[in-house]
UniProtKB/TrEMBL annotation, chain A:
InterPro entries listed in its UniProt record: UCP030820
Organism domain of life: Bacteria
Protein name: Oxidoreductase
UniProtKB/TrEMBL annotation, chain B:
Domain Nitrite/Sulfite reductase ferredoxin-like: 52-109, 344-394
Keywords per UniProt: 4Fe-4S, Heme, Iron, Iron-sulfur, Metal-binding, Oxidoreductase
Domain Nitrite/sulphite reductase 4Fe-4S: start-end pairs: 119-274, 405-542
Statement: the UniProt record of this protein carries the keyword Heme: yes
Keyword 4Fe-4S: yes
Species annotation: Sphingobium ummariense RL-3
InterPro entries in alphabetical order: NIR_SIR_4Fe-4S, NiRdtase/SiRdtase_haem-b_fer, Nit/Sulf_reduc_fer-like_dom_sf, NO2/SO3_Rdtase_4Fe4S_dom, NO2/SO3_Rdtase_4Fe4S_sf
GO function term, MF aspect, one: heme binding
Name under which the protein is recorded: Sulfite reductase
Pfam families per the UniProt record, alphabetical: NIR_SIR (PF01077), NIR_SIR_ferr (PF03460)
Length: 146, 544
């Protein structure tokens, strides 16, 4: 499967993610794997020790992981969030906006496709966890400073 | 109406290029149909029985003449010379080639139109009151909020892969002309006791195989916080809906399973959190959008007089023309239910004629309705006769608004790959049976709605008299339902009993209506009569 595609400068955590239940019971674990149906908020009290959250997409149409990643970033988590499973290139733009910063898809992306997907839209209509300035703020420069 | 700025245009243009790339990957075999399907659905492209069907968004049912002419051009160049207005105020083309779809989207983009989020598991194109900005009973024009929500929910990163579709409607009047509470998220703009504007919010409505009327989830949401509230609803649903059974993934099912109280509690908790993120658009942006919807420069001192000496014209005026908020003006309803025609269908020539009329007589403003008709919202009363003559010459002056032949019907088995039965011929036969206008007028308001399958695109659950086509051992069979409403007196229709074949259902409708005629009280609508006497007298008439 090769190395994950990362948008971070720090070394990749090498500890494989354990299940949420196992993570909550193993106080020295630092990587956790969230299934689509897991309640990400159970992880929030433990965020201090988390280095990597893997979020599984069992089918690419299952969008629960977008909310899981968003909730982690809204809670102030700055560690790595990795999308794994049935991750298609067409999801990557939205995933980046929700706070995913690494990708390990079942079927590797075509080279060059990621840049194209991420640069497709010049702007965004709404703010999200990625801090991009939304169009409404660009229209009213008094709001455009993040 | 709203005008794109360079940001809006760039987003739509980017979407066209993205879809061009996806279509190319599909045609070249880099994407499987399974992978391509959700991508094309996000651009309104369905694979139907005979061809691809493209659903183009008409945001909150508002069009200008330039857009309508482009729709006519697309009908002529890429389809078979006509289009079909839907029950969500959009327009569909039935005979599209996949390879043409990117070019069609590019053409639409030149007139500030698109097919973004008109299908698939996404936040769908918003619907709204088709009399917005013209209705005497509205507290404000709901379209600025509709446009703001449109932008806020376009390409929303967290909510682009939802459990199922999510439909929003917005109105600002007492009278409900938008089938409000049949939506997942229904918004009515109100003023609270302090005179502040906000939203009455309903959640969890929907038709389909499990019809549920949206419940009042919040009595008042401050206007400036509505995007946060919608996101809270979406997040609770996105996180907790089932994902294992496509028939049980709509939000209404989650609301039903959790209970209204628990669903509301979770939404309120999420709302409190999301408010802290500062995601709502500021007042300045609302003001910018709202300026696009300033009332047109209505003339003052116009006469209210109307020359009614032509009886056919007078008949049309009495049925198709509604009161306007500005003195001397009127709202014109254009029927897309001509004798023997197909509900909601309109030819390229008719589109161009309507575009001309909108430009010349209605401040370049044109609406589509969820009842599959069109509206010229701002016509001077003194121009009504000229408008009527032009419509009449184009076969668009049918007199049947709200009457028994103003039938809603889905495309059914003539087009749709999901359908079990044909809807169009049933609608045509009922219309033929009741073609006599005196008979129609005597029967008064009577809303017949026909769906060719359980998905209920033809709104049969919300019909005074509903018809549902089903497949019964390989033959088309039609169930009859009574007592539904999509108006402010919302209710869900109930099945009368065993179904009928194609001729039988038309007879059953007629027997139902004849029984109503026998037992109604003076001036009593069919729906009120049904509510007074219940199902039994009708069952007796239908089944003997």
């Amino acid at each position: 499967m090769g190395d994950p595609l990362r948008f971070r400068d720090d070394p990749a955590p090498d500890e494989p993610g354990v299940s949420l239940d196992a993570f909550l019971n193993q106080k020295d674990a630092t990587s956790v794997l969230l299934e689509a149906g897991d309640d990400v908020r159970a992880l929030l009290p433990e965020l201090g020790r988390v280095r990597l959250v893997e979020i599984d997409f069992p089918r690419f149409r299952d969008g629960r992981g977008f909310s899981s990643a968003s909730i982690l970033r809204e809670a102030g988590y700055t560690g790595e969030i990795r999308a794994i499973g049935d991750v298609l290139i067409d999801l990557v733009f939205f995933m980046r906006r929700c706070g995913f910063d690494s990708f390990e898809p079942d079927a590797p992306f075509h080279p060059g496709a990621v840049d194209a997907a991420l640069s497709r839209y010049p702007d965004v209509y709404q703010s999200a966890t990625d801090g991009r300035v939304p169009i409404w703020a660009l229209r009213h420069p008094q709001f455009a400073t993040e | 109406m709203y005008k794109y700025d360079e940001y809006d245009q760039a987003m739509v243009d980017a979407r066209v290029e993205e879809f061009r790339d996806q279509t190319r990957r599909r045609i070249e075999g880099h994407l499987s149909e399974d992978q391509f399907k959700p991508l094309r659905l996000k651009n309104g492209l369905y694979l139907q029985l005979h061809a691809y069907m493209l659903r183009v968004a008409v945001p909150y049912g508002t069009l200008n003449s330039r857009q309508m002419r482009k729709l006519a051009h697309i009908a002529r160049k890429y389809d078979r010379g006509y289009g079909h207005f839907t029950t969500r105020q959009n327009i569909q083309y039935n005979w599209i080639k996949l390879a043409d779809a990117p070019d069609i989207l590019a053409e639409l983009a030149t007139v500030e139109m698109h097919a973004i989020q008109t299908s698939g598991e996404s936040i769908r194109n918003l619907s709204a009151d088709h009399y917005a900005g013209a209705a005497p009973d509205e507290i404000c024009d709901p379209r600025p909020w509709a446009e703001l929500i449109r932008q806020a929910t376009t390409f929303h990163p967290e909510f682009s892969y939802l459990p199922r579709k999510f439909k929003i409607a917005v109105i600002a009047a007492q009278e409900d002309r938008a089938a409000l509470r049949w939506h997942d998220c229904a918004l009515r703009i109100i003023k609270n006791e302090n005179g502040e504007q906000g939203f009455e919010v309903y959640a969890g409505g929907g038709m389909g195989r499990t019809p549920i009327i949206a419940f009042p989830i919040r009595a008042f949401c401050p206007a400036g916080q509505i995007f946060s509230y919608i996101q809270a609803i979406l997040r609770v649903w996105n996180r907790h809906a089932r994902r294992d059974n496509i028939h049980k993934q709509r939000m209404k099912i989650l609301v039903h399973e959790l209970g209204e109280e628990e669903f509301r509690r979770q939404v309120e908790m999420e709302f409190e959190h999301i408010l802290t993120l500062g995601r709502d658009f500021p007042q300045a942006e609302y003001d910018r959008i709202a300026a696009h919807f300033d009332p047109p420069p209505f003339e003052t001192g116009l006469s209210e007089e109307l020359d009614r000496s032509d009886p056919d014209f007078a008949l049309w005026v009495d049925r198709q023309v509604a009161a306007h908020k500005a003195p001397g003006y009127a709202i014109v309803n254009i029927s897309l239910k001509p004798d023997g025609g197909i509900t909601g269908d309109i030819s390229a020539e008719q589109m161009e004629l309507v575009a001309d009329l909108a430009e010349r007589y209605s401040f370049d403003d044109l609406r589509s309705t969820h009842v599959q008709n069109l509206v010229l919202p701002h016509v001077r009363k003194r121009d009504l006769h000229a408008v009527w003559q032009a419509l009449d010459a184009a076969g668009l002056a049918s007199v049947n608004l709200g009457l028994v032949t103003d039938i809603i019907a889905c495309p059914g088995l003539d087009y749709c790959s999901l359908a079990n039965a044909r809807s169009i011929p049933v609608a045509q036969q009922i219309a033929e049976r009741f073609a006599d206008l005196d008979r129609q007028l005597d029967l008064g308001e009577l809303k017949i709605k026909i769906s060719g399958c359980i998905n209920a695109c033809g709104h049969h659950h919300a019909a005074h008299i509903g018809i549902l086509g089903v497949d019964r051992k390989g033959t088309e069979n039609y169930q009859l339902l009574l007592g539904g409403s999509g108006a402010e007196d919302v209710s869900q229709a109930k099945i009368t009993g065993p179904g009928f074949d194609e001729t039988g259902i038309v007879d059953a409708v007629e027997r139902t209506i004849e029984r109503y005629r026998e037992i109604r009280e003076p001036g009593e609508r069919f729906l009120d009569c049904y509510r007074r006497v219940g199902m039994d007298p009708f069952k007796e008439a239908i089944y003997g």
